[in-house]
């Protein structure tokens, strides 16, 4: 049986240990800050990106990897006859998955490309499950079925505490942004149906606190929560508070808290956070 190798993009939230343990290939995105181009995770770290973004004169620009990078990666990994399973962030926020599909058709390799419909740790849930299935001898079909099961039982919520970047990025009108800023509006978003949707909005941090409390209550009612992840854009203090609250309900789950990727950080802005989890039936 041919080996199966997993490829993903750098918007994913994986620890270096997980990448090494499961032999996952991560193709980096590129970031431009004030005309300087960086390679995500190679020439700039996530924490360094947050520092650079704070002092930048304009909103950073992120772009998907070049199609040639995908083709070269696929062909190198497939040189020994391996199949390639390439899992990427949702199309709604990046064209990375489209580039991967084009490369998969052009490469001299057996490539299957998946739109995870998520990003960050929520995408990692699918990648890690696929790796687990493959490592015990599962087929590509087995891995795809496992990915779909995780996908169907995953939730990703994001809290935006400063709407400045959403306005700059054109996802909120300038007038609405000014009004929201004056009113100290906070927004809760959810990734659902391959889109980023506004779940609720309100004044002050009480909007965030109330949502977290309600999410905590909902989580406690669920059976078989398998994993929880919290990511943030220069919002470690709040993220640690959320972790402590959820950890009390799920002491057996190791909740990963890390800085999010530049794509999400650029759109969501400093202070944003995301909570992601999935269950098994």
Q: Summary?
A:
This protein is an alpha/beta fold. 42% of the residues lie in helices and 27% in strands. The two termini are 29 Å apart.
Commentary on this structure:
The protein is of the alpha/beta class. The chain contains eleven helices and 13 strands. The protein has helices at 16-21, 46-55, 67-77, 96-106, 120-135, 140-152, 164-168, 174-182, 206-221, 236-249, 262-268; strands at residues 4-9, 25-27, 30-33, 36-39, 61-63, 83-88, 110-115, 154-160, 185-192, 195-203, 225-232, 256-259, 273-279. The strands form three sheets. Strands 10-9-8-13-11-12 form a six-stranded mixed sheet, with helices on both faces. A four-stranded parallel sheet has the order 2-1-6-7, with helices on both faces. It starts with a strand and ends with a strand.
């Amino acid at each position: 049986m041919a080996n199966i190798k997993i490829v993903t993009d750098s918007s994913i939230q994986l620890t270096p240990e997980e990448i090494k343990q499961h032999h996952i290939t991560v193709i980096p995105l590129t970031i431009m800050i004030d005309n300087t181009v960086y390679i995500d995770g190679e020439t700039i770290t996530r924490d360094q990106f947050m520092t650079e973004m704070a002092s930048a004169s304009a909103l950073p620009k992120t772009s998907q990897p070049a199609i040639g990078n995908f083709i070269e990666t696929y062909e190198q990994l497939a040189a020994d006859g391996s199949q390639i399973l390439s899992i990427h962030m949702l199309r709604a926020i990046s064209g990375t998955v489209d580039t991967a599909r084009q490369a998969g058709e052009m490469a001299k390799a057996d490539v299957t490309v998946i739109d995870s419909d998520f990003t960050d740790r929520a995408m990692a849930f699918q990648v890690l499950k696929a790796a687990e299935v493959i490592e015990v001898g599962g087929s590509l079909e087995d891995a795809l079925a496992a990915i779909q099961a995780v996908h169907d039982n995953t939730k990703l919520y994001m809290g935006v505490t400063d709407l400045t970047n959403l306005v700059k990025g054109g996802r909120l009108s300038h007038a609405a942004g000014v009004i929201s800023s004056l009113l100290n509006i906070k927004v809760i978003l959810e990734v659902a149906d391959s889109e980023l949707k506004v779940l609720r909005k309100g004044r002050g941090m009480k909007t965030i606190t109330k949502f977290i409390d309600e999410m905590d209550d909902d989580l406690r009612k669920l059976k078989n929560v398998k994993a929880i992840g919290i990511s943030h854009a220069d919002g470690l203090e709040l993220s640690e508070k959320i972790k402590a609250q959820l950890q009390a309900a799920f002491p057996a789950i190791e909740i990963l808290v890390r800085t999010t990727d530049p794509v999400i950080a650029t759109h969501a802005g400093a202070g944003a956070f995301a909570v992601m989890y999935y269950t098994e039936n």
